[in-house]
Amino acid sequence: MILRRLTKHIDEQNWFAVGLDMLVVVVGIFVGLQISNWNTDRQNITKGYSYLNRIADELEQDIRFFDTSLRINRDSVERGNFILQTLENENLAIESPTKFIRTIERLGGTFRTNVSDNTFEEIKFSGNLELITDEKLRNKIADYYDFIEMEQNWSHIRIMMETTYFTRSAGILKPDQIGRSPRENEGIYTAEEAQEVYQVFKNKASLIEWIPSVIWTKKQSILFDQEAQRRAKELHAEIRGEPIQEQPDK
């Protein structure tokens, strides 16, 4: 329609009308581009908020997992100290046979939280980091996942400690005592079994000297989880626009 009218005005040499037609075309193109840009910006803002909400959801999961990790590893440290105390008092092992034997079996393991960074990795690899328009918040998110990755870079020390423990504890428990489930109406282990295991354990000098190192490793994991959870809570609160809930140390 515009082209036909423009051609007609040119043929008639109506230059004012030609100029007016050109102005209409230019304004139309400009408005169209602005609308397109506005739609793109709106879509990017919506996508940025979606990314933040997904990260916040993953942080909620991380916080719950850290609670579990802290509870299990604190209990494991207590049990490690309990094992060392039995060296001074054999009756502790006899009076708590299941706790004693279970600890011998499992002390080498450390529970680790599997932090979910799926959304952040997706943002990075898609080149969409700028969609999180708040630069300070964007940097805090990156710092959180960098902190998590830093711990993973030191995981070889923890793995070495745990592997050495299991190597040195080999032979203390009989095959049928490993991974045993409770029998109906009975305890898992008896006092007689605990006494038998204790006699083998107290002569395992290489294992006994390694236990403090294993406990130290668990304490380091606890310190990391405390700091990581603190960061996760602060970041989650900032993304959600909520006040940070102070939690007493347990």
Description:
There is one protein chain. The chain is mostly helical. The protein has one domain. Helices cover about 75% and strands about 0% of the residues. It has 10 helices and no strands. The model has no long low-confidence stretch (mean pLDDT about 85).
- The assigned structural class equals mainly alpha
Oligomer: single chain
CA radius of gyration is 32 Å
- Helical residue percent band: over 70%
The averaged pLDDT comes out at 83
* Poorly predicted residue ranges: none
Name the beta content range: under 5%
What is the rounded distance between the termini?
76 Å
Helix and strand string, N-terminal first? HHHHHHHHHH
Task: Considering the chains and any ligands shown, give keywords for the structure.
rod-shaped, 10 helices, 250 residues
Q: What's the layout of helices and strands?
A:
Blueprint: H1 2-11, H2 15-86, H3 90-95, H4 97-106, H5 118-126, H6 135-153, H7 155-168, H8 191-201, H9 205-208, H10 211-240
Helix pairs in contact: 1-2, 2-4, 2-10, 4-8, 6-10, 7-10
Can you give me a brief rundown of this structure?
The chain is an all-alpha fold and 250 residues long. It has helices at residues 2-11, 15-86, 90-95, 97-106, 118-126, 135-153, 155-168, 191-201, 205-208, 211-240.
